Amino acid sequence: MRKFLLTFPLLLAIFASHSQSIRELYQAGLKAYDEKDYQVFKEKMYSIDTMRPNYPPVVYNLAGGYALTGELDKSIETLKKYILMNATQDFTEDEDFAALIETEAFQDIVKQQKDLTEEMPVEVAYQFPILQSHSECITYSNKQKSFFLGGVRDGKIWKIEDGKEPEVWAESPENSWAVMGLDISKDGKTLWACTSAMDNFESLREEDKGKASVLKYDLKKGTLLETFAVPTNHVFGDMITDSNGNVFISDGVENKLYWVSEEKGELEVFADLDNEIFNLQGLTFNQDESAMYLSDYIDGIYRLDMTTRETQKLSVPGDVLLKGIDGLYFRENMLVGMHNGTIPNRVIKYRLDENGTGILSKEVVAQAGVLGEPTQGTFVDNKLYFISNSPWPSYDREGNFNPDKKSIVIGAVSF
């Protein structure tokens, strides 16, 4: 189990605000494990998982801790949870699970692990040479019959017409950085973009780090109409427009939902979710826009009532783990999650209950293979088109971009 504990500094980096207490728990757990005090080891791993849930190495260690202390049912339950996060780890030779290996429940997990790693091909809708831009987000104009892509590295917006190579539609203006989200207004007249000053943006200035902005374009003319910028400590990661002309933006650092209302035309906080959500990502409305679904990359999906602005975490059955969801989309009482925080990555449809407050079942529609790292998508008629292999793994430790794939693939999911 030591090999998993060695990855723990990454957890500390992700959750810096709690790093001291988590570090102390980790060190105490490591010491207890070395001294074969497995009860204390389990307790420390449980405490960490309670503070910041669903970090795969900690969940794995917790499963081992349960097995070592004779809590075999809890170990099985936790190991099932772990393989939904990482189905590639060979745990059958781990001596910590010696008490489980001969049980039927353990063998069922081994079989489930095999199912979770089998390739399920994605429908390839479009394919074009990989852009040094690093495509991350996508939207579609019905009027222009064109896709638009946002570039992380160059901060540009690219346009794709059927049968043509991608071309630059908008350069990166002042107070604009990595393009992380795109959406077109329901009347088809405005293209909105959200940008974040991240290290992956090749023209980043040190003084801009942590800044973010929202850009408003005239879609027909391609001209920039307005820029709404905020100072440091933000990552605007996704956005969505409603039928009234309002635009909503997720901030994955502050865990606030921002908006630019049609009435006021100012960038403001719509809902402060920092006490509920660890890492705010994807946004999508239900059918009548009375509620918005929000993906927490760490801990699941929440439903936000647009009138009361109160949130409720979706209930899930035991075989569902809503971890690692980037883009999130609603259609026909279903949610589609782009899971790029699991191994392997997946695209999964989730059937909602009548109230839209819980998940009844799931259907994996793409997994592994050409899927790569799915990020964001857009509906065109009865299909969800999405970037299926955004090249985030193509950066080395120095931040250099060296893609090993030849093409960007836009996949499709039918409804």
Based on helices, strands and strand pairing, what is the structural class?
alpha+beta
Radius of gyration: 22 Å
Total number of beta strands: 24
From the coordinates shown, what is the CATH architecture of the largest domain?
A: 7 Propeller
CATH class of the largest domain: Mainly Beta
CATH superfamily of the largest domain: YVTN repeat-like/Quinoprotein amine dehydrogenase
Describe the protein in words.
The chain has 415 residues and is α+β, with helices and mostly antiparallel strands. It is built from 7 helices and 24 strands. The protein has helices at residues 2-5, 8-14, 19-34, 38-51, 56-68, 72-85, 104-117, and strands at 123-129, 135-141, 146-151, 157-161, 167-170, 178-184, 190-196, 212-218, 223-230, 236-241, 247-251, 256-260, 267-272, 280-285, 291-296, 300-305, 311-313, 325-331, 334-339, 346-352, 359-367, 377-380, 383-387, 407-414. The strands form 6 sheets. A 4-stranded antiparallel beta sheet has the order 1-24-23-22, with no helix packed on it. Strands 2-3-4-5 form a 4-stranded antiparallel beta sheet, with no helix packed on it. It has a 4-stranded antiparallel beta sheet with strand order 6-7-8-9, with no helix packed on it. Strand 11 (247-251) and strand 12 form a beta hairpin.
